[in-house]
Amino acid sequence: MPQFAANLSMLFTELPFMQRFAAARSAGFDAVEYLFPYAWPRDELAAALQANGLRQVLHNLPAGDWDAGERGIACHPDRVAEFRAGVAQALDYATALQCPQLNCLAGRLPAGVAREHAHITLVGNLRYAAAALQAAGIRLLIEPVNHFDIPGFFLTHTAQALALIDEVGSDNLFVQYDIYHAQRMEGELGATLQRHLARIGHIQLADNPGRHEPGTGEINYRWLFRHIDALGWRGHIGCEYKPRGHTTDGLGWRTALS
């Protein structure tokens, strides 16, 4: 059975954020991830990790005004300076939290911007971020996201992400493979993981439909977990799903599907 990381932006949301670290530890997780750390002091987050014996395995680069519906700015030609400032901020946090990888959300195609112009911007931003993170010993990830949940998102398919990595030309850029998004856009989960595992830096999960816990939908997670183990995956898998009820009540899938 793979190792799992609790996504604190999705799990234990009945608790204030800083209490979710202890809840994750009590529920048997040894690692966490979450969308953004920037609303909390670095030292406070680091202390919560240490106090609960947790590793942080992922957070995102700043992604614009999330509450206003922005989902990344890396493809926005008029916000390159903001993107670069966000890289510096993310590195500052990741270093303090000993977080080994950061995810870059490409964002929605901006209104009035040609797709090719956005693509050129994204390539340039990824080259900058990959180099900056590599100097600090931190990996950069890019994540294809389904266009049903986030209409207009620029990066939607695994093949598109791999082509983008090839164009950027950095050995410090990897795919964040979200099983839920991949199932909605392309399927072929087992074959894709097997073919491209060396280029995948992180895996996340949720079932479909509903984006709930494994075992609630159409994905054969019992088979998929064994497949991932057989492929030799050694990283954590982030549990980025919406619990159907109380988080703790829904965690039985970890043993039921083993």
Mean pLDDT: 98
Number of DSSP strand runs: 8
The major β-sheet equals: 8 strands, parallel, barrel
- N-to-C order of helices and strands: EHEHEHEHEHEHHEHEH
**From the helix content, strand content and strand pairing, which structural class follows?**
alpha/beta
CATH top level assignment: Alpha Beta
Provide the low-confidence segments as ranges.
Answer: none
What does this protein look like?
- The protein has a single domain, classed as Divalent-metal-dependent TIM barrel enzymes (TIM Barrel), CATH 3.20.20.
- It is globular, with a radius of gyration of 17 Å.
- Helix 2 (42-51) packs parallel to helix 3, helix 3 packs parallel to helix 4 (115-135) and helix 7 packs parallel to helix 8.
- With 258 residues, the chain is an alpha/beta fold.
- Helices cover 38% and strands 15% of the residues.
What keywords describe this structure?
single chain, 258 residues, alpha/beta, 8-stranded parallel beta barrel, 38% helix, 15% strand, globular
Topology:
Layout: E1 3-7, H1 20-26, E2 31-33, H2 42-51, E3 55-60, H3 80-97, E4 101-104, H4 115-135, E5 139-142, H5 158-168, E6 173-178, H6 179-185, H7 189-196, E7 200-205, H8 221-231, E8 236-239, H9 253-256
Parallel strand pairs: 1-2, 1-8, 2-3, 3-4, 4-5, 5-6, 6-7, 7-8
Question: Brief overview, please?
Answer:
About 40% of the residues lie in helices and about 15% in strands.
